[in-house]
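Technical annex, item 7. During the second reporting period the consortium partners agreed on a shared format for inverse folding records so that results from different sites could be compared directly. Each record opens with the tokenized structure and is followed by the designed sequence. A conforming record, contributed by the partner at site C, is shown below for reference.
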């Protein structure tokens, strides 16, 4: 066989293998899409707006997990639009706070999506109710993939909003993905910090962390023996008599008609009991100081979680970073309280930085 024949054979092999891989990937994507059970009716915790067009969409992250999202498009919009992906709170679904944010920002001229994270809500991924600092950060970038390739979107004008625990993940995503031109972290948690150190860093020592690791390791063994993961428990149906005020605030949102949703982990059985494992050793804020694009951190004056936002803001550098403290607001006020959430500020921030 001469050299020309060898070259032609190699080219042929590459084409055949590439086509086979493409068919396999397409088949896998199609299978993942078919597995999703998307609700047709409007089942949000907020009323439907007559100013936007709503539809369900799906897209796949780089781990092959298909995510479900609600797409909101300003009615009668023309030309390519700036776009925003929204997720959170941690343990919530897109029918709750993130959908509310997305719909209102669409009313203000942005094409938006609110998505369910991997393993949660209507999105794919097995086993269910898993959390991961890596995969959940990737979920934001996968949403950017979807938006950047949408015919109605200007791919150079994409931002994200993360609420509660997804605020910290949004900052992490912004540090990893420069396509994200503007980031809002609203009433944010740093999930790595709270899992590793406890609230207000009360357990920030090796002894406490090692005791936690032992508990989580024992739970892993039990889960493996049983063949299924133990749920960690969401907000309880009945509040303990000595529940702190912020726990009462969570109850008022997740367990009442105000914010309850049947697919919300916080409203029901919670994430898997071993969910803290990956966050203990993998800090989310390690590259926050390298974010070049704009970031707005919003927190309530009376929020128990305020220190997460303020400390995250201190790590940010550059003159395009802002911290906004809302007078009198608690943590969950920024989930759905339209008198408190500064949507005018969000609109201005994205307009100024998505241009």
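Designed sequence (site C submission):
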């Amino acid at each position: 066989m001469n050299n020309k024949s060898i070259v032609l054979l190699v080219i042929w092999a590459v084409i055949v293998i590439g086509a086979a891989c493409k068919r396999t990937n397409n088949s896998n994507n199609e299978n993942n899409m078919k597995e999703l059970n998307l609700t047709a009716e409007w089942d949000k915790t907020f009323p439907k707006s007559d100013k936007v067009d709503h539809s369900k969409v799906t897209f796949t992250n780089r781990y092959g997990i298909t995510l479900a999202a609600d797409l909101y498009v300003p009615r009668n919009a023309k030309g390519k639009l700036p776009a925003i992906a929204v997720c959170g709170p941690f343990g919530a679904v897109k029918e709750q706070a993130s959908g509310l944010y997305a719909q209102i920002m669409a009313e203000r001229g942005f094409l938006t999506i609110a998505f369910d994270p991997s393993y949660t809500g209507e999105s794919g991924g097995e086993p269910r109710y898993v959390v991961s600092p890596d995969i959940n950060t990737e979920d934001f970038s996968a949403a950017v993939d979807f938006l950047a390739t949408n015919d109605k979107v200007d791919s150079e004008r994409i931002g994200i909003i993360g609420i509660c625990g997804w605020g910290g993940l949004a900052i992490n995503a912004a540090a990893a993905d420069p396509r994200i031109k503007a980031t809002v972290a609203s009433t944010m948690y740093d999930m790595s910090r709270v899992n590793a150190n406890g609230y207000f860093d009360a357990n920030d020592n090796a002894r406490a962390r090692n005791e936690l690791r032992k508990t989580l390791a024992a739970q892993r063994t039990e889960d493996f023996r049983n063949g299924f993961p133990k749920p960690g428990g969401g907000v309880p149906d009945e509040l303990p008599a000595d529940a702190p005020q912020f726990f009462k605030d969570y109850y008022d949102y997740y367990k009442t008609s105000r914010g309850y949703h049947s697919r919300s982990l916080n409203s029901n059985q919670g994430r898997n009991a071993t969910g803290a494992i990956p966050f203990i050793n993998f800090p989310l804020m390690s590259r926050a100081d390298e974010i070049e694009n704009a970031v707005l951190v919003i927190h309530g004056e009376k929020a128990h979680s305020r220190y997460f936002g303020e400390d995250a803001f201190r790590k940010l550098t550059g003159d395009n970073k802002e911290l906004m403290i809302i007078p009198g607001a608690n943590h969950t006020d920024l989930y759905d309280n339209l008198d408190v959430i500064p949507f005018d500020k969000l609109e201005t921030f994205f307009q100024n930085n998505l241009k």
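The longest strand covers residues 153-163. The chain is about 40% helix and 15% strand. All partners now use this format for quarterly exchanges.
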